[in-house]
Specification:
zinc ion binding, PPR_At4g14850-like_plant, DNA-binding, mainly alpha, about 625 residues, DYW_dom, about 5% strand, 6-stranded mixed beta sheet
DNA sequence: CTAGGGTTAG
Protein backbone atom coordinates (compact mmCIF):
# COMPACT_ATOMS: atom_id res chain seq x y z
CA UNK A 1 0.00 0.00 0.00
CA UNK A 2 2.87 2.34 0.76
CA UNK A 3 4.03 2.15 -2.82
CA UNK A 4 0.96 4.10 -3.75
CA UNK A 5 2.03 7.13 -1.79
CA UNK A 6 3.34 9.03 -4.76
CA UNK A 7 0.23 8.69 -6.88
CA UNK A 8 -1.81 11.85 -7.01
CA UNK A 9 -4.99 10.24 -5.89
CA UNK A 10 -4.56 7.73 -3.12
CA UNK A 11 -7.15 4.91 -3.23
CA UNK A 12 -8.28 5.97 0.23
CA UNK A 13 -9.29 9.31 -1.22
CA UNK A 14 -11.62 7.62 -3.68
CA UNK A 15 -13.14 5.76 -0.77
CA UNK A 16 -13.67 9.01 1.11
CA UNK A 17 -15.34 10.55 -1.88
CA UNK A 18 -17.94 7.84 -2.01
CA UNK A 19 -18.45 7.43 1.72
CA UNK A 20 -21.41 9.12 3.25
CA UNK A 21 -21.42 8.06 6.87
CA UNK A 22 -19.15 9.11 9.64
CA UNK A 23 -18.38 5.49 10.46
CA UNK A 24 -17.05 4.83 7.00
CA UNK A 25 -14.80 7.84 7.32
CA UNK A 26 -13.55 6.73 10.69
CA UNK A 27 -12.74 3.29 9.35
CA UNK A 28 -10.70 4.75 6.52
CA UNK A 29 -8.97 7.03 8.97
CA UNK A 30 -8.07 4.10 11.20
CA UNK A 31 -6.85 2.15 8.23
CA UNK A 32 -4.55 4.97 7.22
CA UNK A 33 -3.24 5.33 10.76
CA UNK A 34 -2.58 1.62 11.03
CA UNK A 35 -0.57 1.81 7.85
CA UNK A 36 1.27 4.88 9.14
CA UNK A 37 0.25 6.69 6.01
CA UNK A 38 -0.81 9.81 7.78
CA UNK A 39 2.71 10.67 8.79
CA UNK A 40 2.88 11.98 5.31
CA UNK A 41 1.70 15.56 5.70
CA UNK A 42 0.80 15.76 2.09
CA UNK A 43 -1.53 12.79 2.27
CA UNK A 44 -3.00 13.95 5.57
CA UNK A 45 -3.80 17.32 4.02
CA UNK A 46 -5.38 15.62 1.06
CA UNK A 47 -7.38 13.45 3.41
CA UNK A 48 -8.73 16.51 5.20
CA UNK A 49 -9.56 18.19 1.90
CA UNK A 50 -11.36 15.14 0.58
CA UNK A 51 -13.55 14.85 3.63
CA UNK A 52 -14.32 18.54 3.36
CA UNK A 53 -15.12 18.46 -0.34
CA UNK A 54 -17.04 15.23 -0.53
CA UNK A 55 -18.63 14.91 2.87
CA UNK A 56 -20.06 18.35 3.57
CA UNK A 57 -22.19 16.91 6.35
CA UNK A 58 -19.14 15.80 8.27
CA UNK A 59 -17.14 18.99 8.28
CA UNK A 60 -16.43 18.70 11.95
CA UNK A 61 -14.58 15.49 11.17
CA UNK A 62 -12.36 17.33 8.71
CA UNK A 63 -11.65 19.74 11.51
CA UNK A 64 -10.85 16.87 13.80
CA UNK A 65 -8.33 15.37 11.37
CA UNK A 66 -6.95 18.79 10.59
CA UNK A 67 -6.17 19.31 14.27
CA UNK A 68 -3.80 16.33 14.00
CA UNK A 69 -2.08 17.82 11.01
CA UNK A 70 1.01 19.77 12.08
CA UNK A 71 1.60 21.88 8.99
CA UNK A 72 -1.39 22.01 6.69
CA UNK A 73 -0.73 23.15 3.16
CA UNK A 74 -2.45 25.98 1.34
CA UNK A 75 -4.37 23.34 -0.58
CA UNK A 76 -5.78 21.96 2.64
CA UNK A 77 -6.83 25.37 3.93
CA UNK A 78 -8.37 26.31 0.60
CA UNK A 79 -10.38 23.12 0.62
CA UNK A 80 -11.68 23.91 4.07
CA UNK A 81 -12.66 27.42 3.00
CA UNK A 82 -14.42 26.04 -0.03
CA UNK A 83 -16.27 23.47 2.03
CA UNK A 84 -17.40 26.01 4.59
CA UNK A 85 -18.46 28.49 1.91
CA UNK A 86 -21.10 25.95 0.93
CA UNK A 87 -22.04 24.94 4.46
CA UNK A 88 -24.70 26.28 6.77
CA UNK A 89 -21.99 28.15 8.68
CA UNK A 90 -20.11 29.93 5.90
CA UNK A 91 -18.56 32.51 8.22
CA UNK A 92 -16.26 29.79 9.56
CA UNK A 93 -14.35 30.04 6.27
CA UNK A 94 -12.64 33.10 7.67
CA UNK A 95 -11.12 31.05 10.45
CA UNK A 96 -9.02 29.24 7.86
CA UNK A 97 -8.23 32.42 6.00
CA UNK A 98 -6.75 33.77 9.23
CA UNK A 99 -4.77 30.59 9.68
CA UNK A 100 -3.27 31.06 6.23
CA UNK A 101 -2.25 34.61 7.10
CA UNK A 102 -0.84 33.58 10.46
CA UNK A 103 0.83 30.37 9.35
CA UNK A 104 4.45 29.67 10.28
CA UNK A 105 5.13 28.36 6.78
CA UNK A 106 4.71 31.82 5.26
CA UNK A 107 1.65 30.74 3.37
CA UNK A 108 -0.13 33.45 1.48
CA UNK A 109 -3.61 33.30 0.04
CA UNK A 110 -3.86 32.59 -3.67
CA UNK A 111 -6.48 32.96 -6.37
CA UNK A 112 -8.30 29.85 -5.11
CA UNK A 113 -8.45 31.22 -1.59
CA UNK A 114 -10.08 34.42 -2.73
CA UNK A 115 -12.45 32.76 -5.10
CA UNK A 116 -13.81 30.63 -2.26
CA UNK A 117 -13.91 33.56 0.12
CA UNK A 118 -15.95 35.58 -2.35
CA UNK A 119 -18.44 32.69 -2.53
CA UNK A 120 -18.54 32.68 1.26
CA UNK A 121 -19.48 36.36 1.26
CA UNK A 122 -22.18 35.74 -1.33
CA UNK A 123 -23.57 33.02 0.88
CA UNK A 124 -23.44 35.23 3.95
CA UNK A 125 -25.09 38.22 2.29
CA UNK A 126 -23.13 40.19 4.89
CA UNK A 127 -22.83 43.85 4.09
CA UNK A 128 -19.34 44.43 5.49
CA UNK A 129 -17.38 41.32 4.70
CA UNK A 130 -18.09 41.31 0.97
CA UNK A 131 -16.48 44.65 0.19
CA UNK A 132 -13.53 43.98 2.50
CA UNK A 133 -12.82 40.68 0.76
CA UNK A 134 -13.07 42.57 -2.51
CA UNK A 135 -10.41 44.97 -1.16
CA UNK A 136 -8.18 42.07 -0.20
CA UNK A 137 -8.59 40.65 -3.71
CA UNK A 138 -7.31 43.91 -5.16
CA UNK A 139 -4.55 44.20 -2.59
CA UNK A 140 -3.24 40.77 -3.48
CA UNK A 141 -3.50 41.51 -7.16
CA UNK A 142 -6.15 39.00 -8.18
CA UNK A 143 -8.71 41.41 -9.56
CA UNK A 144 -8.05 40.25 -13.11
CA UNK A 145 -8.82 36.62 -12.40
CA UNK A 146 -12.00 35.84 -14.39
CA UNK A 147 -13.16 33.28 -11.81
CA UNK A 148 -12.99 35.91 -9.11
CA UNK A 149 -14.59 38.54 -11.30
CA UNK A 150 -17.66 36.46 -11.98
CA UNK A 151 -17.70 35.54 -8.31
CA UNK A 152 -17.71 39.20 -7.29
CA UNK A 153 -20.60 39.96 -9.62
CA UNK A 154 -22.49 37.04 -8.13
CA UNK A 155 -21.65 38.21 -4.62
CA UNK A 156 -22.83 41.78 -5.17
CA UNK A 157 -25.98 40.48 -6.80
CA UNK A 158 -26.70 38.45 -3.68
CA UNK A 159 -26.22 41.61 -1.65
CA UNK A 160 -28.57 43.44 -3.98
CA UNK A 161 -25.91 45.96 -4.97
CA UNK A 162 -26.50 46.24 -8.65
CA UNK A 163 -24.26 49.29 -9.12
CA UNK A 164 -21.33 47.34 -7.66
CA UNK A 165 -22.08 44.53 -10.10
CA UNK A 166 -21.95 47.02 -12.94
CA UNK A 167 -18.74 48.49 -11.60
CA UNK A 168 -16.96 45.13 -11.41
CA UNK A 169 -18.25 44.21 -14.84
CA UNK A 170 -17.28 47.58 -16.31
CA UNK A 171 -13.70 47.13 -15.24
CA UNK A 172 -13.28 43.88 -17.14
CA UNK A 173 -11.66 44.77 -20.49
CA UNK A 174 -12.95 41.77 -22.42
CA UNK A 175 -15.52 39.94 -20.34
CA UNK A 176 -16.04 36.34 -21.37
CA UNK A 177 -19.39 34.61 -21.72
CA UNK A 178 -19.33 33.56 -18.07
CA UNK A 179 -18.97 37.11 -16.77
CA UNK A 180 -21.55 38.33 -19.27
CA UNK A 181 -24.00 35.74 -18.04
CA UNK A 182 -23.23 36.68 -14.46
CA UNK A 183 -24.12 40.31 -15.09
CA UNK A 184 -27.32 39.36 -16.92
CA UNK A 185 -28.32 37.20 -13.99
CA UNK A 186 -27.34 39.91 -11.52
CA UNK A 187 -29.50 42.54 -13.25
CA UNK A 188 -32.48 40.18 -13.28
CA UNK A 189 -31.97 39.22 -9.64
CA UNK A 190 -31.72 42.85 -8.57
CA UNK A 191 -34.96 43.78 -10.26
CA UNK A 192 -33.79 45.18 -13.59
CA UNK A 193 -34.89 42.43 -15.98
CA UNK A 194 -35.33 44.92 -18.78
CA UNK A 195 -31.68 45.81 -18.70
CA UNK A 196 -30.75 42.17 -18.23
CA UNK A 197 -32.56 41.47 -21.49
CA UNK A 198 -30.74 44.31 -23.25
CA UNK A 199 -27.40 42.88 -22.17
CA UNK A 200 -28.55 39.41 -23.12
CA UNK A 201 -29.57 40.56 -26.60
CA UNK A 202 -26.20 42.26 -27.03
CA UNK A 203 -24.17 39.19 -26.11
CA UNK A 204 -22.09 38.20 -29.13
CA UNK A 205 -22.45 34.54 -28.24
CA UNK A 206 -25.08 32.94 -26.08
CA UNK A 207 -24.56 29.46 -24.76
CA UNK A 208 -27.36 27.42 -23.13
CA UNK A 209 -26.46 28.69 -19.66
CA UNK A 210 -26.87 32.30 -20.80
CA UNK A 211 -30.34 31.44 -22.12
CA UNK A 212 -31.20 29.70 -18.91
CA UNK A 213 -30.03 32.67 -16.88
CA UNK A 214 -32.32 34.99 -18.79
CA UNK A 215 -35.31 32.63 -18.64
CA UNK A 216 -34.74 32.11 -14.93
CA UNK A 217 -34.49 35.88 -14.49
CA UNK A 218 -37.93 36.33 -16.01
CA UNK A 219 -39.39 33.43 -14.05
CA UNK A 220 -38.05 34.70 -10.75
CA UNK A 221 -39.43 38.19 -11.07
CA UNK A 222 -42.89 36.96 -12.01
CA UNK A 223 -42.64 37.64 -15.75
CA UNK A 224 -43.75 34.12 -16.51
CA UNK A 225 -45.09 34.89 -19.96
CA UNK A 226 -41.77 36.40 -20.99
CA UNK A 227 -39.96 33.38 -19.56
CA UNK A 228 -42.01 31.03 -21.73
CA UNK A 229 -41.70 33.26 -24.77
CA UNK A 230 -37.94 33.30 -24.44
CA UNK A 231 -37.95 29.55 -23.99
CA UNK A 232 -39.79 29.17 -27.28
CA UNK A 233 -37.32 31.49 -28.96
CA UNK A 234 -34.51 29.41 -27.52
CA UNK A 235 -35.96 26.31 -29.12
CA UNK A 236 -36.48 28.03 -32.44
CA UNK A 237 -32.82 28.98 -32.41
CA UNK A 238 -31.95 25.36 -31.82
CA UNK A 239 -30.20 25.93 -28.48
CA UNK A 240 -29.85 22.79 -26.44
CA UNK A 241 -32.30 22.65 -23.55
CA UNK A 242 -31.31 20.90 -20.36
CA UNK A 243 -32.95 20.01 -17.05
CA UNK A 244 -31.90 23.22 -15.33
CA UNK A 245 -33.70 25.24 -17.95
CA UNK A 246 -36.82 23.13 -17.56
CA UNK A 247 -36.93 23.93 -13.87
CA UNK A 248 -37.43 27.59 -14.74
CA UNK A 249 -39.93 26.73 -17.44
CA UNK A 250 -41.94 24.67 -14.97
CA UNK A 251 -41.71 27.43 -12.42
CA UNK A 252 -43.19 29.84 -14.95
CA UNK A 253 -46.02 27.37 -15.64
CA UNK A 254 -46.65 27.09 -11.90
CA UNK A 255 -47.04 30.81 -11.52
CA UNK A 256 -49.36 31.03 -14.47
CA UNK A 257 -51.30 27.95 -13.43
CA UNK A 258 -50.83 26.87 -17.02
CA UNK A 259 -51.52 23.15 -16.80
CA UNK A 260 -51.45 22.45 -20.53
CA UNK A 261 -48.05 24.07 -20.95
CA UNK A 262 -46.83 22.38 -17.79
CA UNK A 263 -47.93 18.99 -19.12
CA UNK A 264 -46.21 19.76 -22.36
CA UNK A 265 -43.02 20.59 -20.45
CA UNK A 266 -43.27 17.29 -18.58
CA UNK A 267 -43.68 15.40 -21.82
CA UNK A 268 -40.76 17.33 -23.30
CA UNK A 269 -38.55 16.26 -20.38
CA UNK A 270 -39.47 12.62 -20.91
CA UNK A 271 -39.25 12.77 -24.69
CA UNK A 272 -35.77 14.24 -24.53
CA UNK A 273 -34.77 11.94 -21.67
CA UNK A 274 -33.55 14.82 -19.53
CA UNK A 275 -32.24 13.51 -16.21
CA UNK A 276 -34.92 13.67 -13.54
CA UNK A 277 -32.92 15.43 -10.88
CA UNK A 278 -34.16 16.19 -7.40
CA UNK A 279 -34.71 19.83 -8.29
CA UNK A 280 -36.51 19.02 -11.52
CA UNK A 281 -38.80 16.53 -9.78
CA UNK A 282 -39.59 19.10 -7.13
CA UNK A 283 -40.37 21.70 -9.78
CA UNK A 284 -42.73 19.20 -11.44
CA UNK A 285 -44.56 18.54 -8.18
CA UNK A 286 -44.90 22.26 -7.62
CA UNK A 287 -46.18 22.79 -11.16
CA UNK A 288 -48.89 20.12 -10.90
CA UNK A 289 -49.84 21.29 -7.42
CA UNK A 290 -50.14 24.93 -8.43
CA UNK A 291 -52.11 23.95 -11.50
CA UNK A 292 -54.60 22.08 -9.33
CA UNK A 293 -53.75 18.55 -10.43
CA UNK A 294 -52.79 17.16 -7.05
CA UNK A 295 -53.14 13.54 -8.14
CA UNK A 296 -50.46 13.99 -10.73
CA UNK A 297 -48.31 15.95 -8.29
CA UNK A 298 -48.40 13.07 -5.83
CA UNK A 299 -47.73 10.56 -8.58
CA UNK A 300 -44.51 12.40 -9.36
CA UNK A 301 -43.77 12.71 -5.65
CA UNK A 302 -44.07 8.99 -4.93
CA UNK A 303 -42.09 8.19 -8.04
CA UNK A 304 -39.06 10.09 -6.85
CA UNK A 305 -36.33 7.93 -5.41
CA UNK A 306 -34.71 10.77 -3.52
CA UNK A 307 -36.55 13.56 -1.76
CA UNK A 308 -35.24 16.52 0.17
CA UNK A 309 -36.93 19.12 2.32
CA UNK A 310 -37.94 21.09 -0.79
CA UNK A 311 -39.61 18.04 -2.29
CA UNK A 312 -41.60 17.25 0.83
CA UNK A 313 -42.49 20.87 1.45
CA UNK A 314 -43.70 21.35 -2.11
CA UNK A 315 -45.98 18.36 -1.86
CA UNK A 316 -47.24 19.41 1.55
CA UNK A 317 -47.92 22.95 0.45
CA UNK A 318 -49.73 21.66 -2.62
CA UNK A 319 -51.92 19.42 -0.49
CA UNK A 320 -53.02 22.20 1.86
CA UNK A 321 -53.55 24.62 -1.00
CA UNK A 322 -55.82 22.11 -2.67
CA UNK A 323 -57.77 21.42 0.50
CA UNK A 324 -56.16 18.13 1.58
CA UNK A 325 -55.10 19.23 5.05
CA UNK A 326 -55.19 15.76 6.51
CA UNK A 327 -52.99 14.31 3.79
CA UNK A 328 -50.53 17.12 4.35
CA UNK A 329 -50.23 16.17 7.99
CA UNK A 330 -49.80 12.51 7.10
CA UNK A 331 -47.02 13.46 4.76
CA UNK A 332 -45.37 15.44 7.52
CA UNK A 333 -45.21 12.29 9.66
CA UNK A 334 -43.73 10.30 6.80
CA UNK A 335 -41.19 13.01 6.17
CA UNK A 336 -39.97 12.86 9.74
CA UNK A 337 -39.87 9.07 9.56
CA UNK A 338 -37.68 9.47 6.52
CA UNK A 339 -35.23 11.47 8.60
CA UNK A 340 -35.74 14.73 6.72
CA UNK A 341 -35.55 17.77 8.92
CA UNK A 342 -38.44 20.19 8.50
CA UNK A 343 -37.65 23.88 8.18
CA UNK A 344 -39.64 27.11 8.47
CA UNK A 345 -41.27 26.62 5.11
CA UNK A 346 -42.40 23.11 6.00
CA UNK A 347 -44.07 24.40 9.12
CA UNK A 348 -46.13 26.92 7.22
CA UNK A 349 -47.80 24.00 5.46
CA UNK A 350 -48.10 21.97 8.65
CA UNK A 351 -49.87 24.81 10.43
CA UNK A 352 -52.09 25.53 7.45
CA UNK A 353 -52.93 21.86 7.28
CA UNK A 354 -54.02 21.89 10.90
CA UNK A 355 -55.99 25.03 10.23
CA UNK A 356 -57.89 23.55 7.30
CA UNK A 357 -58.68 20.39 9.24
CA UNK A 358 -59.53 22.29 12.40
CA UNK A 359 -56.93 20.64 14.62
CA UNK A 360 -56.30 23.55 16.95
CA UNK A 361 -54.44 21.72 19.70
CA UNK A 362 -52.30 19.75 17.31
CA UNK A 363 -51.42 22.94 15.49
CA UNK A 364 -50.42 24.56 18.73
CA UNK A 365 -48.20 21.58 19.53
CA UNK A 366 -46.49 21.79 16.14
CA UNK A 367 -46.00 25.50 16.60
CA UNK A 368 -44.37 24.97 19.99
CA UNK A 369 -42.24 22.16 18.63
CA UNK A 370 -40.66 24.48 16.09
CA UNK A 371 -38.43 26.06 18.68
CA UNK A 372 -38.35 23.26 21.22
CA UNK A 373 -37.62 20.33 18.93
CA UNK A 374 -36.25 21.80 15.73
CA UNK A 375 -34.58 25.00 16.90
CA UNK A 376 -36.59 27.03 14.40
CA UNK A 377 -37.65 30.52 15.33
CA UNK A 378 -41.29 31.11 14.31
CA UNK A 379 -41.61 33.90 11.76
CA UNK A 380 -44.45 36.28 10.99
CA UNK A 381 -45.98 33.71 8.63
CA UNK A 382 -46.21 31.15 11.42
CA UNK A 383 -47.87 33.59 13.76
CA UNK A 384 -50.29 34.42 10.98
CA UNK A 385 -51.05 30.70 10.58
CA UNK A 386 -51.73 30.39 14.31
CA UNK A 387 -54.16 33.30 14.23
CA UNK A 388 -55.89 31.63 11.31
CA UNK A 389 -55.94 28.33 13.19
CA UNK A 390 -57.78 29.80 16.18
CA UNK A 391 -59.93 32.08 14.05
CA UNK A 392 -61.10 29.41 11.67
CA UNK A 393 -62.18 27.25 14.59
CA UNK A 394 -64.31 30.14 15.76
CA UNK A 395 -62.08 30.79 18.76
CA UNK A 396 -61.82 34.48 18.00
CA UNK A 397 -60.94 35.55 21.52
CA UNK A 398 -58.05 33.13 21.63
CA UNK A 399 -56.93 34.41 18.26
CA UNK A 400 -56.95 37.93 19.61
CA UNK A 401 -55.09 36.84 22.73
CA UNK A 402 -52.54 35.14 20.54
CA UNK A 403 -52.01 38.31 18.52
CA UNK A 404 -51.65 40.36 21.67
CA UNK A 405 -49.07 37.99 23.10
CA UNK A 406 -46.88 37.87 19.99
CA UNK A 407 -43.24 38.69 20.75
CA UNK A 408 -42.98 40.54 17.45
CA UNK A 409 -45.23 43.25 16.13
CA UNK A 410 -48.27 41.65 14.48
CA UNK A 411 -48.36 42.25 10.74
CA UNK A 412 -51.32 42.89 8.50
CA UNK A 413 -51.52 39.19 7.68
CA UNK A 414 -52.17 38.24 11.31
CA UNK A 415 -54.96 40.76 11.63
CA UNK A 416 -56.19 39.76 8.20
CA UNK A 417 -56.70 36.15 9.32
CA UNK A 418 -58.74 37.41 12.25
CA UNK A 419 -60.71 39.80 10.05
CA UNK A 420 -61.54 37.02 7.64
CA UNK A 421 -62.91 34.97 10.53
CA UNK A 422 -64.89 37.96 11.75
CA UNK A 423 -66.66 37.96 8.41
CA UNK A 424 -67.31 34.22 8.64
CA UNK A 425 -68.54 34.37 12.21
CA UNK A 426 -70.18 37.78 11.79
CA UNK A 427 -68.31 39.45 14.62
CA UNK A 428 -68.65 43.15 13.86
CA UNK A 429 -66.80 44.48 16.88
CA UNK A 430 -63.65 42.44 16.45
CA UNK A 431 -63.83 42.96 12.70
CA UNK A 432 -63.69 46.69 13.17
CA UNK A 433 -60.71 46.36 15.46
CA UNK A 434 -58.88 44.09 13.03
CA UNK A 435 -59.49 46.24 9.99
CA UNK A 436 -58.47 49.36 11.87
CA UNK A 437 -55.20 47.66 12.77
CA UNK A 438 -54.63 46.55 9.19
CA UNK A 439 -55.24 50.03 7.86
CA UNK A 440 -52.83 51.42 10.43
CA UNK A 441 -50.20 49.06 9.08
CA UNK A 442 -51.10 49.29 5.42
CA UNK A 443 -53.13 52.40 4.72
CA UNK A 444 -54.08 51.19 1.25
CA UNK A 445 -54.96 47.59 2.01
CA UNK A 446 -57.99 47.22 -0.18
CA UNK A 447 -58.99 43.82 1.20
CA UNK A 448 -59.41 45.13 4.74
CA UNK A 449 -61.95 47.71 3.63
CA UNK A 450 -63.83 45.19 1.58
CA UNK A 451 -64.08 42.64 4.37
CA UNK A 452 -65.16 45.28 6.84
CA UNK A 453 -67.79 46.55 4.50
CA UNK A 454 -69.00 42.98 3.98
CA UNK A 455 -69.36 42.59 7.71
CA UNK A 456 -71.50 45.74 7.79
CA UNK A 457 -73.47 44.60 4.81
CA UNK A 458 -74.21 41.28 6.50
CA UNK A 459 -75.78 43.16 9.40
CA UNK A 460 -77.53 45.41 6.90
CA UNK A 461 -75.82 48.48 8.24
CA UNK A 462 -75.83 50.38 4.93
CA UNK A 463 -74.72 53.66 6.43
CA UNK A 464 -71.57 52.03 7.66
CA UNK A 465 -71.05 50.40 4.28
CA UNK A 466 -71.20 53.69 2.45
CA UNK A 467 -69.04 55.27 5.10
CA UNK A 468 -66.30 52.73 4.42
CA UNK A 469 -66.65 53.50 0.75
CA UNK A 470 -66.23 57.21 1.41
CA UNK A 471 -63.10 56.60 3.46
CA UNK A 472 -61.67 54.50 0.64
CA UNK A 473 -62.37 57.23 -1.87
CA UNK A 474 -60.85 59.86 0.39
CA UNK A 475 -57.71 57.83 0.93
CA UNK A 476 -57.44 56.91 -2.73
CA UNK A 477 -57.51 53.18 -2.05
CA UNK A 478 -57.55 51.34 -5.33
CA UNK A 479 -58.26 47.74 -5.87
CA UNK A 480 -56.54 45.59 -8.37
CA UNK A 481 -58.86 44.90 -11.26
CA UNK A 482 -60.04 41.31 -11.18
CA UNK A 483 -58.59 39.08 -13.81
CA UNK A 484 -59.24 35.43 -14.61
CA UNK A 485 -57.22 33.29 -16.91
CA UNK A 486 -57.98 29.98 -18.49
CA UNK A 487 -56.13 27.85 -20.92
CA UNK A 488 -57.73 26.17 -23.92
CA UNK A 489 -55.46 23.83 -25.86
CA UNK A 490 -52.40 25.59 -24.52
CA UNK A 491 -53.72 28.98 -25.52
CA UNK A 492 -54.19 31.43 -22.69
CA UNK A 493 -57.38 33.48 -22.51
CA UNK A 494 -57.44 36.39 -20.16
CA UNK A 495 -60.62 38.00 -18.89
CA UNK A 496 -60.47 41.32 -17.13
CA UNK A 497 -63.43 42.51 -15.16
CA UNK A 498 -65.88 44.29 -17.46
CA UNK A 499 -63.79 43.61 -20.55
CA UNK A 500 -65.80 42.51 -23.57
CA UNK A 501 -63.00 42.47 -26.08
CA UNK A 502 -62.74 38.70 -26.40
CA UNK A 503 -63.33 37.71 -30.05
CA UNK A 504 -66.02 35.25 -28.99
CA UNK A 505 -67.73 37.60 -26.57
CA UNK A 506 -71.10 37.22 -28.31
CA UNK A 507 -71.15 33.51 -27.62
CA UNK A 508 -69.92 34.11 -24.08
CA UNK A 509 -72.77 36.53 -23.50
CA UNK A 510 -75.26 33.94 -24.71
CA UNK A 511 -73.80 31.41 -22.33
CA UNK A 512 -73.95 33.90 -19.48
CA UNK A 513 -77.64 34.31 -20.25
CA UNK A 514 -78.09 30.54 -20.24
CA UNK A 515 -76.30 30.28 -16.90
CA UNK A 516 -78.49 33.02 -15.53
CA UNK A 517 -81.63 31.26 -16.74
CA UNK A 518 -80.66 27.91 -15.23
CA UNK A 519 -79.65 29.51 -11.95
CA UNK A 520 -83.01 31.21 -11.66
CA UNK A 521 -84.80 27.95 -12.44
CA UNK A 522 -82.84 26.37 -9.63
CA UNK A 523 -84.16 29.04 -7.33
CA UNK A 524 -81.01 31.09 -7.10
CA UNK A 525 -81.51 34.71 -6.15
CA UNK A 526 -78.56 36.96 -6.75
CA UNK A 527 -77.16 37.95 -3.44
CA UNK A 528 -77.20 41.60 -4.28
CA UNK A 529 -76.48 43.12 -0.91
CA UNK A 530 -72.81 42.37 -0.65
CA UNK A 531 -72.57 43.17 -4.32
CA UNK A 532 -73.14 46.75 -3.35
CA UNK A 533 -69.58 46.66 -2.35
CA UNK A 534 -67.70 43.61 -3.26
CA UNK A 535 -64.22 42.21 -3.53
CA UNK A 536 -64.45 43.05 -7.18
CA UNK A 537 -66.66 46.04 -7.22
CA UNK A 538 -68.05 46.75 -10.64
CA UNK A 539 -70.82 49.24 -10.61
CA UNK A 540 -72.30 49.26 -14.06
CA UNK A 541 -72.38 45.59 -14.90
CA UNK A 542 -75.21 43.24 -14.30
CA UNK A 543 -74.64 41.83 -10.85
CA UNK A 544 -74.56 38.28 -12.01
CA UNK A 545 -72.20 38.64 -14.89
CA UNK A 546 -69.69 41.15 -13.76
CA UNK A 547 -66.89 39.21 -12.20
CA UNK A 548 -64.10 37.94 -14.37
CA UNK A 549 -64.32 34.32 -13.27
CA UNK A 550 -67.98 34.12 -14.30
CA UNK A 551 -67.05 35.25 -17.78
CA UNK A 552 -64.17 32.79 -17.79
CA UNK A 553 -66.47 29.96 -16.67
CA UNK A 554 -68.92 30.82 -19.45
CA UNK A 555 -66.09 30.70 -21.94
CA UNK A 556 -64.92 27.40 -20.50
CA UNK A 557 -68.40 25.96 -20.91
CA UNK A 558 -68.58 26.87 -24.58
CA UNK A 559 -65.05 25.90 -25.52
CA UNK A 560 -64.15 22.81 -23.49
CA UNK A 561 -65.48 19.36 -24.32
CA UNK A 562 -68.05 17.92 -21.98
CA UNK A 563 -66.43 16.27 -19.00
CA UNK A 564 -63.30 18.42 -19.24
CA UNK A 565 -62.80 20.35 -16.03
CA UNK A 566 -62.69 24.13 -16.29
CA UNK A 567 -59.53 25.48 -14.73
CA UNK A 568 -59.36 29.12 -13.85
CA UNK A 569 -56.61 31.19 -12.29
CA UNK A 570 -57.72 34.36 -10.61
CA UNK A 571 -55.59 37.21 -9.32
CA UNK A 572 -57.89 38.07 -6.39
CA UNK A 573 -59.86 36.12 -3.88
CA UNK A 574 -63.19 34.67 -4.91
CA UNK A 575 -66.18 36.67 -3.72
CA UNK A 576 -69.16 35.18 -1.91
CA UNK A 577 -71.52 35.46 -4.80
CA UNK A 578 -69.16 33.93 -7.32
CA UNK A 579 -68.47 31.12 -4.91
CA UNK A 580 -72.19 30.37 -4.53
CA UNK A 581 -72.78 30.64 -8.24
CA UNK A 582 -69.84 28.44 -9.15
CA UNK A 583 -71.01 25.75 -6.77
CA UNK A 584 -74.40 25.79 -8.48
CA UNK A 585 -72.95 25.80 -11.98
CA UNK A 586 -70.84 22.77 -11.15
CA UNK A 587 -74.07 20.93 -10.35
CA UNK A 588 -76.39 22.38 -13.00
CA UNK A 589 -73.92 21.92 -15.83
CA UNK A 590 -72.38 18.78 -14.35
CA UNK A 591 -68.94 20.29 -14.69
CA UNK A 592 -65.92 20.21 -12.48
CA UNK A 593 -64.61 23.74 -12.01
CA UNK A 594 -61.24 24.38 -10.45
CA UNK A 595 -60.44 27.94 -9.41
CA UNK A 596 -57.09 29.00 -8.11
CA UNK A 597 -57.49 32.30 -6.31
CA UNK A 598 -54.62 34.30 -4.89
CA UNK A 599 -54.39 32.09 -1.80
CA UNK A 600 -55.71 28.65 -2.51
CA UNK A 601 -57.71 26.32 -4.68
CA UNK A 602 -61.44 25.82 -4.92
CA UNK A 603 -62.44 22.51 -6.45
CA UNK A 604 -66.11 22.78 -7.33
CA UNK A 605 -67.98 19.58 -8.02
CA UNK A 606 -71.62 18.48 -7.71
CA UNK A 607 -72.58 21.71 -6.03
CA UNK A 608 -69.85 21.58 -3.39
CA UNK A 609 -66.47 23.21 -2.95
CA UNK A 610 -63.33 21.68 -1.46
CA UNK A 611 -62.87 24.73 0.76
CA UNK A 612 -66.14 23.93 2.51
CA UNK A 613 -67.12 27.56 2.46
CA UNK A 614 -64.18 28.98 4.41
CA UNK A 615 -61.46 30.75 2.47
C1' DC B 1 -4.87 17.48 -5.75
C1' DT B 2 -9.01 23.06 -5.18
C1' DA B 3 -12.17 27.59 -9.00
C1' DG B 4 -16.29 30.87 -12.58
C1' DG B 5 -22.20 32.02 -15.03
C1' DG B 6 -28.21 29.17 -15.05
C1' DT B 7 -32.49 25.55 -11.18
C1' DT B 8 -36.83 23.95 -6.39
C1' DA B 9 -40.86 24.79 -1.40
C1' DG B 10 -44.12 29.58 2.31
Amino acid sequence: MSSLRCIAKHPAISLIESSTTLNELKQIHTQLLVNSLLNDHHLLGQFVASIALHNPNNLYYSNHVLSQCPNPTLFTFNSMIRAYSKSSTPHKSFHFYKRILRSDDNLSPDNYTFNFLVRTCAQLSARETGPSVHCAVVKHGFENDPHIQSGLIFMYAELGWLSSCHQVFGEIPEPDVVCQTAIVSACAKCGDVGFARELFDKMPQRDPIAWNAMIAGYAQCGKSREALNLFHLMQMEGVKVNQVCMVSVLSACSHLGALDQGRWAHAYIERNKLPMTLTLGTALIDMYAKCGDMNKAMEVFWGMSEKNVYTWSSAMSGLTMNGFGKKCLELFSLMKQDGIHPNEVTFVSVLRGCSVVGLVDEGREHFDSMRRVYGLEPQLEHYGCMVDLYSRAGRLDEALNFINSMPIKPHAGAWGALLNACRMYKNRELGELASRKIVELEAKNHGAYVLLSNIYADSKNWDAVSNVREIMKAKGVRKLPGCSVLEIDGEVHEFLVGDKSHPRYNEIELMLGEISRRLKLAGYVANTNPVLFDIEEEEKEDALCQHSEKVAIAFGLISLREGMPIRIVKNLRVCWDCHDVTKLISRLFNREIIVRDRNRFHHFKDGECSCKGYW
